[in-house]
Design brief:
Helices cover about 75% and strands about 0% of the residues. The protein contains 18 helices and two strands.
Length: about 450
């Protein structure tokens, strides 16, 4: 075995020690962690140091990688011991990181194809998380059959988030990844899946297939693909396929609009980088608010929020944010090929691609994008109705206008493009929710 594989195997073995908590109690688990930490501080050279050290550890002859890794596990264990986080989520998270990394390192000895390596990591991490979670429940005497849907959902979600974070962070940032994954799975475990076990497996298959297609068509980078799959999976499981249809319509049509007259956009200097492939920042900038709305809907449905906030409010917030994203994407991608944009704040002519520049063709395209989201929502959700569809169109158009105003005033100085996208979709969500509440009060 190569040194990275051996190191990963040792780290995975250390992760297995987390089972001591459900088997023997938190005191034994803490004692084992203390022993490993003391050993990590004591070993400063020799073959064991060489086996466990990351390249940066040689500068001070200290196993910082192992030390921070164990400390992250200890922090997660303390959270589980003192909060509503279950021990099963804790063990599943630790297994996910350790054995997912081992699977990745083994894969790297066979191929240098990054997509294959990501797939192997996700498969290994998902299997490990499911085994760790289920094993802990078995030790605790909890029924596994009824917990199976949640176990699969949490394992897959955690693996996708871990793969995404490892893609955008450094390989040695597994402590950060472990804590991030653990906190997400803690949140997701508190919510109730809207679908059954077979449907969750089908949802995973559908989102993975569509994510890979987006990567194969160069409409998403690897990070963008992972982000899209994670968002899609969470949306299906916690909202349902109707919510997913709205979201995937944006990703599909938005991606295609990016390719609209791409050569022409390159000539004008307004084309998206990476041949139009969307990265994680772009995906999250446009869909983070939608994800929060899905989580809010699930929390409201599970009675985790105030009874005064009806789930339907989050449905409209979701639709308003996606309507804004679609409207803004259509407006910028279609409107940018026309050479007579005007700054939205002064109506003065500006160069194509100028932040805050708009064209009448782009405004119409944006209105059409909002109408598409409204139409899909009208068909799929009985709660929407004709008035609700009109509200979604209005929210999308308002959100698109906010995007242009922010682009003309704050983008490039205070905000970046993804920050503008986030605030615009947030404004669309808030406007949509407030309008629905207003009409509900009037009605």
């Amino acid at each position: 075995m190569t040194t990275p594989v051996r190191r990963a195997a040792v780290f995975a073995a250390i992760c297995t020690l987390s089972l001591a908590v459900p088997l023997f109690g938190s005191v034994v688990g803490a004692t084992l962690a203390a022993v490993v930490l003391l050993g990590a501080f004591a070993v400063t050279d020799g073959p064991i140091f060489d086996l466990l050290a990351y390249p940066g550890d040689y500068e001070d002859n200290r196993l910082y990688g192992l030390i921070t890794f164990v400390l992250a596990g200890v922090a997660l264990g303390l959270i589980a011991a003192t909060s509503s986080m279950s021990i099963a989520v804790f063990v599943g998270t630790v297994f996910l990181i350790g054995y997912g990394n081992l699977a990745e390192q083994v894969a790297r000895t066979r191929t240098d194809h990054e997509v294959v390596i990501v797939i192997v990591f996700c498969l290994g991490a998902t299997a490990a998380a499911a085994i760790g979670h289920a094993g802990t429940l078995a030790v605790e005497g909890a029924p596994l059959e009824s917990a199976a849907p949640t176990i699969v959902f949490l394992a897959a979600s955690g693996a996708l988030l871990a793969a995404l974070l490892r893609d955008v962070l450094l390989l040695y940032d597994d402590p950060i990844v472990m804590l991030s994954v653990g906190l997400l799975l803690w949140l997701l475990a508190e919510l109730e899946p809207a679908i059954g076990p077979l449907e969750i497996v089908a949802a995973l298959a559908v989102t993975v297939a569509l994510g890979y297609v987006s990567y194969a068509l160069d409409t998403a980078s690897i990070a963008g693909m992972l982000t899209g799959i994670l968002l899609g999976l969470v949306t299906i499981v916690l909202g349902g396929y109707g919510w997913f249809a709205v979201l995937i319509a944006f990703f599909a049509l938005g991606g295609l609009s990016t390719k609209f007259k791409y050569d022409r956009k390159e000539e004008m200097g307004v084309a998206e980088d990476n041949d139009g492939a969307r990265g994680s920042g772009n995906v999250l900038g446009n869909a983070a608010v939608a994800l929060v709305a899905v989580l809010g809907y699930a929390a409201s449905s599970a009675s985790l929020l105030s009874d005064h906030i009806a789930p339907v409010v989050f449905l409209f917030a979701f639709a308003g944010s996606v309507s804004t994203a679609m409207s803004d994407t259509f407006s910028s991608e279609i409107g940018s090929v026309f050479e007579t944009p005007r700054l939205i704040t002064t109506l003065e002519p500006v160069e194509p691609g100028t932040d805050g520049g708009v064209t009448w063709q782009g405004e119409l395209a944006g209105l059409a994008g909002a109408a598409i989201v409204a139409g899909i929502s009208y068909v799929l959700f009985p709660e929407v109705g004709a008035v609700g569809a009109a509200i979604i169109v209005a929210a999308g158009f308002i959100g698109m206008t906010v995007d242009s105003l922010l682009g003309a005033t704050l983008e490039g100085t205070v905000l970046g493009n993804q920050g503008v996208n986030f605030l615009a979709t947030l404004s669309g969500a808030i406007v949509c929710a407030l309008l629905v509440l207003s009409f509900a009060v009037i009605g």
